Amino acid sequence: MSQPATILLVDDSRASRMLCAAVMRSLHPGLHLLEAGDGAAALALLDDALPDLAVLDMNMPGMSGIELAERLRLSHPGMKLALLTANAQEAVQRRAAALGVHFFRKPIGETVIADILALLE
Question: 4-aspartylphosphate is carried by which residues (predicted)?
C-alpha cells in the first residue's frame, strides 16, 4: 500500500467493528477506516468517500452483506469486497464467489485480518 488505504467496515455488532478496526490499525497504522452498522449507513458513507475495500458482515438488519455487496458491485465495480461472517453456509459462499466477493470466516483474529488486508496489495 503506497498511500493509506480506506476501508469500509460494515457490521451491526459494534464490538465486532471495534475489534476488526483495532486489529487492522495494529497491522497497518495508517489505514483510514469508515464504519457503518448496516447497509443503508454504508451506502450513505459512499457519498463522501470511496473506499479501496469494503469488509461486510453477512447477517445484518435491513440488508444482508450479500445484498450490500450486490449494490456495491453495481455502483463501484472496482471496489474490493470481503465478506467476514460466521455464516459459513455453502450457498452464501457460492453467491459471494459469483459476485467476486472474497469470503472470510469469523472469529476475527490477526491472521484473518491480515488475509483481508492482503487484498489491498
Answer: 57
Query: Which strands, in side-by-side order, build the sheet including 32-36?
Result: 32-36, 6-10, 53-56, 80-85, 102-105
Maximum CA pair distance of the chain? 36
Specify the CATH number for 6-120; select among 3.40.605.10, 3.40.50.2300, 3.55.30.10, 2.60.120.10: 3.40.50.2300
